[in-house]
Known about the structure:
Layout: E1 2-8, E2 11-18, E3 21-25, E4 30-34, E5 37-41, E6 45-50, E7 55-57, E8 65-69, H1 73-78, E9 88-92, E10 97-98, E11 113-115, E12 117-123, E13 139-146, E14 149-150, H2 161-164, E15 170-177, E16 186-191, E17 194-200, H3 208-218, E18 226-228, E19 236-238, E20 243-248, E21 252-257
Parallel strand pairs: 8-18, 10-15
Antiparallel strand pairs: 1-2, 1-7, 1-15, 2-3, 3-6, 4-5, 8-9, 11-14, 11-19, 12-13, 12-18, 13-15, 16-17, 16-20, 20-21
Amino acid sequence: xxxIRCIYKDAIYYGRIEDDLVVLSKDLPQIRIHDxxxxxxxxxxxxxxxxxxxxxxxxxxxxxxxCVGLNYRDHAEEFGLKIPSSPVLFIKPSTTLLGxxxxxxxxxxxxxxxxxxxxxxxxxxxxxxIDAKYAxxxxxxxxxxxxxxxRDLQPKDGQWTVAKSFDTFMPLGPWIETDLDxxxxxxxxxxNNEPKQVSSTxxxxxxxxxxxxxxxxxxxxxxxxxxxxxxxxxxxxxxxGDSVCIEIEGIGRLxxxxx
Length: 259
């Protein structure tokens, strides 16, 4: 199932894509476990409309975005940093959220703004102290993300809030794919159609279930919250006027421009 969040006739809806149609709903779908099987349901379906009549927004509105730094060995090595023994976490505020096709704003405080392609986990059920073997039962699905970073404002001491938190610095989309195994997905970033990052989620140091187990011991994960799982090597700067595309196997392409 592909789940979107969109504008239709000046109102915000969630929806599921059915061929060239969208079944609209006012609420994020619910995860239910029945006979030990996960089911994803929309409780209130409003209408069925053509996909061409809706405008895509970021596919969820997280109360928090929990981001994982240095979760690909080659990315840690390209910055000369040690491989972490436990996940390195930071938080992006909700004001960084940006939908597909919308412009990333180049802040006046920075002289180097980088792209970072990432697989993003979307939580669908309240999760606290979850064992890794049950972790995927709490996942609504997966989307593409760009952990945009003001690199010149990112010190190596791990205090990354300023560099990561400018408005529009978390593009997500284009939709949430629910039927996906996150363990081995091809991941790419393109800058002006030129490939810059090429990797696979099989290269993650900490995989999705172990991240959910670790993070949920620290904080409650709410429906709609996201986990940005980290980026591989090949990150680099974007300039005003550039276009950037994050592509993940089984999900699709997230495209934004820089202004």
